[in-house]
Design a protein that fits this description.
alpha/beta, Rossmann fold, 7-stranded mixed β-sheet, 11 helices, globular, binds S-adenosylmethionine
């Protein structure tokens, strides 16, 4: 069956009509086998799209674990940092899923990977075949800690709403109590005040989304942003916020990457804040940064509907991009109320606050990234 799966993945590297393929497969396979092949093929296409694994072709997937799993460049960075922080001894991974992290950790660490879900464990065991030295264990990882020098966990949410540690599986507060050097991958929306004192935190973004907060213990209270771009990592530490200053037409505004916002890295450096409560930065023209999307400000106007209609008539933007920060508006609802542009070219209406006052910024996007 596995060799049939490999052939199918090689033959169909991009999505095709699964119903048709299913009919063909049922001629040579039982229905159960055909369903397994189709599901594994479908999840392989998802894995490719998500950049979930370095080499996704031979792997077995389970749907929920694939969605929750680490993207491989992020898993690789974490494994390398773990090697620097925990260079010797046995690393125990509690809750390995189908191996998104295990496959990167296995390259660099003496590793024991534990998973309590039967189906995911089957996938994990298969996926780690090329690393026979990894000690794969079934069941609660907390009962497999013998000999551990350090631990790693990527807890799953127990339910969609929970925001407390006990809503995570495994519960991070139970892991920190063990007192082992540890690395935990948590949601970037975490409340830093609930973390153990002096831990270090990396906020990490991928494909424009802040994907994870990686929490290190022991640490020294360092917080930084990490951004993966064109195969390289950029990093920037937490800084004091820059002063609030004026924004005028012809200046540039910068919307920082979400990891830089979460880490309060205040990138690009050299900019100033346009409002006390916002992460949007302003600068003279010419300040470019890999950390931000930047816009040239053409005009600053009032943000009531009548004024916005007038501005869109004047600039005639097509396509029109509507962005907001610190402004309660639904861009798609507003768009329907504005005249459709024809020949003004692409443009952006930014709805935000400048020094406490709601304003509309008429902008052009600058493409330096
Ligand atoms: C978010 S997933 C891990 C994903 C994995 N890091 C990856 O990148 O593929 C969390 C996993 O932890 C497992 N788990 C939770 N508590 C556990 C425990 N105490 N022992 C073993 N596995 C556990 C869950 O079954 C789930 O598969």
């Amino acid at each position: 069956m596995h060799s049939t799966l490999l052939q199918l993945r090689q033959q169909f590297p991009a999505p095709i009509d699964l119903a048709k393929l299913g009919q063909q497969l049922r001629k040579e396979h039982s229905s159960q086998e055909a369903i397994w092949l189709l599901q594994q093929l479908d999840m392989y296409w998802d894995a490719l799209r998500l950049q979930a694994f370095r080499d996704p072709l031979p792997l077995w997937y389970e749907a929920q674990a694939l969605q929750m799993g680490s993207r491989w460049p992020l898993a690789e960075r974490r494994a390398q940092k773990m090697q620097q922080r925990f260079p010797t001894g046995l690393l125990v991974e509690i809750g390995a899923g189908i191996g998104g992290d295990s496959l990167e950790l296995a390259r660099l660490h003496q590793l024991r990977s534990c998973e309590k879900d039967d189906l995911r464990l089957q996938c994990l065991t298969h996926n780690l075949q090329s690393f026979p030295q990894v000690d794969v264990r079934e069941g609660d990882g907390l009962t497999h800690l013998g000999g551990a020098a350090s631990l790693y966990a990527d807890p799953a949410r127990r339910n969609a709403h929970g925001r407390q540690w006990h809503n995570l599986d495994p519960d991070p507060s139970q892991l920190w109590k063990l007192g082992l050097p540890s690395c935990l991958k948590l949601s970037p929306g975490l409340d830093e005040s609930t973390l153990p004192p002096d831990c270090d935190i990396d906020y990490v973004s991928h494909q424009g989304v802040c994907k994870e907060a990686v929490v290190w213990l022991p640490g020294s209270g360092q917080v930084s942003a990490w951004l993966y771009q064109d195969g390289h990592w950029l990093t920037s530490p937490r800084r004091q916020p820059p002063p609030v200053g004026r924004l005028e037409p012809s200046m540039w505004i910068h919307e920082p990457d979400p990891a830089a916002i979460r880490a309060q890295a205040w990138e690009p450096q050299g900019g100033w804040r346009v409002d006390e409560s916002l992460a949007l930065l302003a600068s003279p023209p010419g300040l470019t940064s890999d950390w931000a999307q930047s816009f040239e400000v053409l005009e600053i106007g009032d943000s009531d509907l009548k004024s916005l209609v007038k501005l869109q008539v004047k600039y005639d933007f097509q396509p029109l991009e509507i962005k907001k920060r610190g402004f309660d508006v639904e861009p798609e609802v507003l768009r329907k109320k504005l005249p459709k542009g024809k020949s003004g070219g692409p443009g952006v209406i930014w709805l935000t606050r400048l020094e406490g006052r709601h304003r509309a910024l008429i902008c052009r996007r600058l493409d330096h990234r």
